[in-house]
Amino acid sequence: MREVKQATDRQRRSLPANARNWRKSLRSYSSRLHWHCHFIQKLEDEPRMESENLNPLYDGLRPREPHADLRSTWSRGETGYPFFDACMRSFSATGWLNFRMRAMVTATASYHLWLDWWARGLHLTRMFSDYEPGIHCSQVQMQSGTTGINTVRTYNPVKQGCDQDPHEQFIRKWVPELAAISDPYIHEPWTAPNAGQIIGFAYPARVFDHMAAVKAARERVWRVRRGDEFRDGSKKIMSKHTSRKSGKRTLKRTGSTEDLAQLSLPRGDAE
Ligand SMILES: Cc1cc2nc3c(=O)[nH]c(=O)nc-3n(C[C@H](O)[C@H](O)[C@H](O)COP(=O)(O)OP(=O)(O)OC[C@H]3O[C@@H](n4cnc5c(N)ncnc54)[C@H](O)[C@@H]3O)c2cc1C
């Protein structure tokens, strides 16, 4: 790791003045190497993070033994949301997903399907080709909201599909059951004129309604987050684990505010 870091820095310093983008990419890569070690250290400091909620006030919020049918629907990529299902199926076949899609599959299991991260997370740990417990435990807890210091970040699987797979190639590859659905409907096949012949037959009906599921999850989570006990617990976690300045910033794109203290974390864009 040190050799890689030093070689990256050397390369960055040797770039010509006009190589701004290349320099920025290397800086970004370097910061990920920093995160890598930072998270490994975090688990070393607090090993209970591997099996317990970082903030114990979340204990019991979701059933520790997840609903078996929902869990297999999630892990097999049969939720009825084409982009989400494509991600899970691709992940099962290759053992890899990029950061944002890992965040989406984790957050969706926690918020939309209300599955506890621990038992469900074992599926990811067994499958990831780059499994690293330190990074993984922290990330799974952050994306599931059980650190108590991260904002509740949910992902809309339809919007993510439109953003990340605008030409539908990824969905077409991994969800062949939708071959008869034409392009304009592929992200929301239940709206297609021929949906009646496919949805619920060749391809499953949606197992959750995005808006309703997110609303219900937020209400349940915020019931825990209100109150002094939660605030005190969060302060302790923040002082032990975060390295960013706390405070608020306004997100340009959405105009909403979010906490800056993030377990020192990269931010996936929500929704
Ligand atoms: C739920 C969830 C689980 C994850 N589990 C793992 C895991 O088990 N192992 C793992 O290595 N990464 C994990 N990550 C972090 C990240 O998604 C992967 O490291 C990243 O997808 C690798 O992309 P890359 O190979 O293009 O590396 P680059 O983006 O080029 O980064 C280079 C290296 O930096 C490290 N890195 C990159 N992003 C992060 C990050 N966000 N946090 C910490 N280190 C990072 C990795 O070691 C990576 O190989 C997880 C993220 C989430 C949201």
Question: Helical proportion?
Answer: 40-55%
Superfamily at the CATH H level of the largest domain? DNA Cyclobutane Dipyrimidine Photolyase, subunit A, domain 3
Q: Can you tell me the number of structural domains?
A: 2
Tell me, what's the shape? globular
The residue ranges in which pLDDT falls below 50 over 5 or more consecutive positions are: 250-262, 265-271
Main sheet summary: 2 strands, antiparallel
The top level CATH class name of the largest domain: Mainly Alpha
- Cα distance spanning the termini: 34 Å
Number of E-type strands: 2
Give helix and strand order, one letter per element, not per position.
HHHHHHHHHHHHEE
CATH topology of the largest domain: DNA Cyclobutane Dipyrimidine Photolyase, subunit A, domain 3
> Number of helical runs?
12
Give the mean pLDDT: 88
Name the strands of the widest sheet in spatial order: 1-2
Characterization of this structure:
The chain is an all-alpha fold and 271 residues long. The chain folds into 2 domains: 2-45; 47-264, Orthogonal Bundle (DNA Cyclobutane Dipyrimidine Photolyase, subunit A, domain 3), CATH 1.10.579. It is built from 12 helices and 2 strands. The chain has helices at 2-13, 20-45, 68-76, 82-94, 99-112, 117-127, 133-144, 157-164, 169-174, 195-198, 210-225, 228-241; strands spanning 248-250, 257-259. A two-stranded antiparallel sheet has the order 1-2. Strand 1 (248-250) and strand 2 form a beta hairpin. Helix 2 (20-45) packs across helix 7 (133-144). The protein is globular and about 55 Å long. Bound molecules: flavin-adenine dinucleotide. Residues 29, 32-33, 35-36, 39, 98-99, 102-103, 106, 128, 130-132, 135-136, 139-140, 143, 266 line the site of flavin-adenine dinucleotide.
